[in-house]
């Protein structure tokens, strides 16, 4: 990276959902083929991480996600030499619950299906994970990590930008 180029990590969110010892994952099409991931995606301009995780979970699973706790901030770097990509992801992970799948609601483009897997099953297929953060987030949830939802503060300027020098 050139000295004048600013480091700009991609900010993402992930939903970690456990029900009866199984975790909700999505199987999605990637440049590396079909991979497994937590329901996850990018934070869009104008939304808080909490809003983003609710939206992404709905888009990828066709289920309403209710955040109950913040799991943590995770960072990982991903290289795709063939495409010249070198991306660092900052993932804000939340745990919570989901309702039943919404009848007739399609999954987001690229999502093939949802799966409910045990921690052992998830660990056993690490080569199919979209990111090393998939397993880490599930392991942290299984270990009991829970932080208050207000751990991540989203200033109102996300929706109405603050103007330097204004009141």
TrEMBL record:
The keyword Acyltransferase does not apply. GO terms for molecular function: hydrolase activity. Its cofactor is Mg(2+). Pfam families: NUDIX. InterPro entries: NUDIX_hydrolase-like_dom_sf, NUDIX_hydrolase_dom, NudJ. Its EC number is 3.6.1.-. Residues 6-139 form the Nudix hydrolase domain. Keywords: Hydrolase, Magnesium. It is an enzyme of class 3 (hydrolase). It comes from the Bacteria. The keyword Magnesium applies. Belongs to the Nudix hydrolase family. NudJ subfamily. Monomer. This is Phosphatase NudJ. It comes from Pelomonas nitida.
């Amino acid at each position: 990276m050139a000295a004048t180029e600013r480091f700009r990590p991609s900010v993402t969110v992930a939903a970690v959902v456990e029900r009866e010892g199984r975790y909700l994952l999505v199987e999605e099409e990637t440049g590396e083929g079909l991979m497994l991931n937590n329901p996850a995606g990018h934070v869009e301009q104008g939304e808080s991480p909490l809003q983003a995780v609710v939206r992404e979970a709905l888009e990828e699973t066709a289920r309403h996600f209710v955040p109950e706790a913040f799991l943590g901030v995770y960072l990982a770097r991903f290289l795709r030499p063939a495409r010249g990509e070198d991306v660092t992801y900052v993932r804000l992970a939340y745990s919570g619950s989901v309702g039943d799948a919404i009848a007739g609601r399609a999954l987001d483009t690229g999502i093939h299906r949802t799966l409910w897997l045990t921690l052992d099953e998830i660990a056993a297929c690490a080569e199919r994970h979209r990111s090393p953060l998939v397993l880490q987030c599930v392991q942290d949830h299984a270990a009991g990590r829970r932080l208050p939802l207000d751990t991540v503060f989203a200033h109102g300027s996300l929706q109405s930008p603050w103007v330097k020098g204004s009141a």
